[in-house]
Amino acid sequence: PHGRVFNFSAGPAVLPVEVLEQAQADLLNWRGSGMSVMEMSHRGKEFQSIIDAAEADLRALLSIPDNYHVLFMQGGASTQFSAIPLNLAGEGDTVDYIVTGSWSKKAASEAKKYCKVNVAATGDNKSIPARDSWNLSADAKYVHYCDNETIQGVEFKGAPDVGGKVLIADMSSNFLSKPVDVSKYGIIYAGAQKNIGPAGVTIVIKAKVLYDAIAGSNGFYNSPVDPAVRSLMNVPFTIPSNPDLEKEFIAQAAKQGMIQLKGHRSVGGMRASIYNSMPLDGVQQLAAFMQKFAAQHA
Ligand code: PMP
């Protein structure tokens, strides 16, 4: 319906049709105000009620404790790469970074402009270094890590124990995809363009469909990531026997309405991003296509 595609983009990502239709209607006349959210005063009571409701919903969804603030910011997650060290550390202070993929690496590089960065652990982009190998500094102002590496598809399965240090997580690509014990964190931040919106189908069953399709392909497809830390949001895979086929896979899938399956340019291969709003039907159609494509080219 509506000529919609299955959009597997890593972000900006798919939104539910019901949400788009509601937004479409609200854009002409928000609840009898005679105007849209883009036209009303940001100090008026209408806008205040919108932002208050958004905050209350978020607090309820994540059980955010009362002693935590919720900030709706501009500038995307990248701005927080500098805002966090600028606000929490001075020039001579040490901060710890755990690098498990491209985004945490970027965050660490940005922080280096403002304070002393200790990279306490560096992964191989496929797995997460064992906690007892981390070299945390005694005096770090905070420990920063990325809960889900969007490009590599490497995801933490719980908050790491940093022994009472202030823990900061970039949850841009798995925000609101699972319950999180907010009290374990000093700061959680996330860009909004991927997951935020009413949840669609259950995430775990979605991701399992794709990893099963990869596992059941007799080696035609390969998932590079350690099974213990495979992301439920971003599923990268390759065709190891013939990487030239990957282009054709992406092109043929697009013809069948499954778009944005190309892996990030820095790693190549394919990547299916299956955020909250991706319908299960889309994931099942992709798994069926993968099976057919493998049968044709094996
Ligand atoms: N962190 C992660 C984990 C991301 O996936 C992204 C966006 N792909 C960013 C940070 C950067 O976010 P933004 O584009 O909102 O600056």
UniProtKB/TrEMBL annotation:
Cofactor requirements of the protein: pyridoxal 5'-phosphate
EC number: 2.6.1.52
Protein name in UniProt: phosphoserine transaminase
Molecular function as annotated in GO: O-phospho-L-serine:2-oxoglutarate aminotransferase activity; pyridoxal phosphate binding
Catalytic activity: 4-(phosphooxy)-L-threonine + 2-oxoglutarate = (R)-3-hydroxy-2-oxo-4-phosphooxybutanoate + L-glutamate; O-phospho-L-serine + 2-oxoglutarate = 3-phosphooxypyruvate + L-glutamate
GO CC annotations, alphabetized: chloroplast stroma
Ranges for domain Aminotransferase class V: 5-207
Any single biological process term in GO: L-serine biosynthetic process
Keywords: Amino-acid biosynthesis, Aminotransferase, Pyridoxal phosphate, Serine biosynthesis, Transferase
Protein family membership: Belongs to the class-V pyridoxal-phosphate-dependent aminotransferase family. SerC subfamily.
Parent-protein start and end of this portion: 62 to 359 of 360
Organismal lineage: Eukaryota, Viridiplantae, Chlorophyta, core chlorophytes, Trebouxiophyceae
